């Protein structure tokens, strides 16, 4: 076993966790705040750079800790400026993270798991199977790496202003580590993003959604994709366990535990030609969401090899949008970005070493 294996990774700590760690070694908790700033505001990769930390504490940390983020193995840039990084983890698995620059913002799409267990039929991550949850360090490490790389971009520095947990994996099935990472994203001593700018996207793992409502204020996106159970059962198999009626009830409850930021749900709806994109589907969707403060995000399907689905035509998407708009909803059709480098929604793949664990993981969800 190498030295690094036994050392703690400072990127694995939440702010509170680091305070507890310092208390346990007889240090003052305010040291944790100083170090969180070094790690996540200045993104240093060595304890030596932490000049306001005493020499003995720096020595202790050098002996007992590392600062270890996922390693970039590939950095692809699309014609439209989208970046996709393939990041290698310590165990040889790899994940993907995407940066989408726009005029007024820069959005980082962050992964939460190696692969995914949910098996949504239109998603290429699903085809990879599932290996494991990411650690806190591997989740926040994606932002850490992206920020450092974008700052140093020779074509001009870019800022990550928004984070969406819409990369590989189901964030609510990796609850604790995702919460730790989200807290760091929103911590003024770390990345300082506002709650409005950090979005968790879920297929609807209801017990975890209930827990989230009591745990953290964050923007919520829900992958609905169908207006009835018969169709959703086919597209999002998790629906067989948590059907639409229960999902909508839980979302209403989530909004009732209201804070200033938590004022609507964003519904994601992938547009699949001839599957879920009819006028009748749009009317049904308008009907089931009635009374829930909602924004609807239509996502043109992004194809991948061997998929049986096709993207709805632009005319169809416009018609679908118009029906919802006429029913009073705010509807946004998501722009497809980074297609030339397979960086669009549902195209993230990475490298999943042992895919066989999906069955075990899914069985666990089924039982829970
Ligand atoms: N597990 C989370 C995050 C997944 S990815 C969730 O289900 O919400 C973020 C979004 O991309 C989800 O809405 C997902 O359903 C959608 N998506 C997956 N595959 C897609 C594809 N091929 N084309 C377009 N959107 C896709």
From TrEMBL:
The entry's function note states: Specifically methylates position 2 of adenine 2503 in 23S rRNA and position 2 of adenine 37 in tRNAs. m2A2503 modification seems to play a crucial role in the proofreading step occurring at the peptidyl transferase center and thus would serve to optimize ribosomal fidelity.
Q: Which InterPro entries match?
A: Aldolase_TIM, Methyltransferase_A, RlmN_N, RNA_MTrfase_RlmN, rRNA_lsu_MTrfase_RlmN/Cfr, rSAM, rSAM_sf
GO BP: any one term: tRNA methylation
Enzyme Commission identifier(s): 2.1.1.192
SUPFAM superfamilies, alphabetically? Answer: Radical SAM enzymes
Name where it's found: Cytoplasm
What's a single GO CC term here? Answer: cytoplasm
The UniProt keywords, alphabetically, are: 4Fe-4S, Cytoplasm, Disulfide bond, Iron, Iron-sulfur, Metal-binding, Methyltransferase, rRNA processing, S-adenosyl-L-methionine, Transferase, tRNA processing
How is the cofactor bound, in the record's words? Binds 1 [4Fe-4S] cluster. The cluster is coordinated with 3 cysteines and an exchangeable S-adenosyl-L-methionine.
Q: Which GO terms describe its molecular function?
A: 4 iron, 4 sulfur cluster binding; metal ion binding; rRNA (adenine(2503)-C2-)-methyltransferase activity; rRNA binding; tRNA (adenine(37)-C2)-methyltransferase activity; tRNA binding
Another remark in the UniProt entry says: Reaction proceeds by a ping-pong mechanism involving intermediate methylation of a conserved cysteine residue.
Q: Which cofactor does it need?
A: [4Fe-4S] cluster
Query: Which segments constitute the Radical SAM core domain?
Result: 102-340
The cross-references to Pfam families, in alphabetical order and at most eight, read:
Radical_SAM, RlmN_N
Q: What is this protein called?
A: Dual-specificity RNA methyltransferase RlmN
Organismal lineage: Bacteria, Pseudomonadati, Pseudomonadota, Gammaproteobacteria, Thiotrichales
Chain positions recorded as S-adenosyl-L-methionine binding sites: 169-170, 201, 223-225, 302
The record's principal subcellular location, in a coarse class, is cytoplasm
Which residues does the entry assign to the active site, renumbered to this chain? 96, 345
Tell me which NCBIfam families the record gives: rRNA_mod_RlmN
Under PROSITE patterns, the record lists: RADICAL_SAM
Q: Where does [4Fe-4S] cluster bind?
A: 116, 120, 123
Q: What family does the entry list?
A: Belongs to the radical SAM superfamily. RlmN family.
Q: Which reaction does it catalyse?
A: adenosine(2503) in 23S rRNA + 2 reduced [2Fe-2S]-[ferredoxin] + 2 S-adenosyl-L-methionine = 2-methyladenosine(2503) in 23S rRNA + 5'-deoxyadenosine + L-methionine + 2 oxidized [2Fe-2S]-[ferredoxin] + S-adenosyl-L-homocysteine; adenosine(37) in tRNA + 2 reduced [2Fe-2S]-[ferredoxin] + 2 S-adenosyl-L-methionine = 2-methyladenosine(37) in tRNA + 5'-deoxyadenosine + L-methionine + 2 oxidized [2Fe-2S]-[ferredoxin] + S-adenosyl-L-homocysteine
